[in-house]
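Try this one yourself first.
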């Protein structure tokens, strides 16, 4: 929801993302993966529970590097697109 599909991770405007998020949680049943802090108050209002995975930072970084460098054909990857970091 936070990024436009197929755009090399171009972010939606915050207002649009929050509207999509709130629409998603307005239903009877939903599951959301992610920790967008700007949306947590709304989620806490409607959620019946939270699952927190407390994974170490070094392990998370190793997994990130593996996915980024070696698994470019996995679902959700950028495929053959270049990763561009602009500091924003």
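Now uncover the answer:
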């Amino acid at each position: 929801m936070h990024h436009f599909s197929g755009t090399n991770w171009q972010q939606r405007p915050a207002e649009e993302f929050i509207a999509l998020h709130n629409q998603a949680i307005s239903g009877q049943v939903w599951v959301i993966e992610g920790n967008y802090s700007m949306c947590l108050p709304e989620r806490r209002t409607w959620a019946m529970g939270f699952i927190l995975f407390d994974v170490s930072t070094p392990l998370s970084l190793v997994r990130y590097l593996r996915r980024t460098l070696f698994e470019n054909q996995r679902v959700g990857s950028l495929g053959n697109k270049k990763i561009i970091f602009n500091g924003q």
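Discussion: Residues 57-70 form the longest helix (14 residues). The mean pLDDT is 82.
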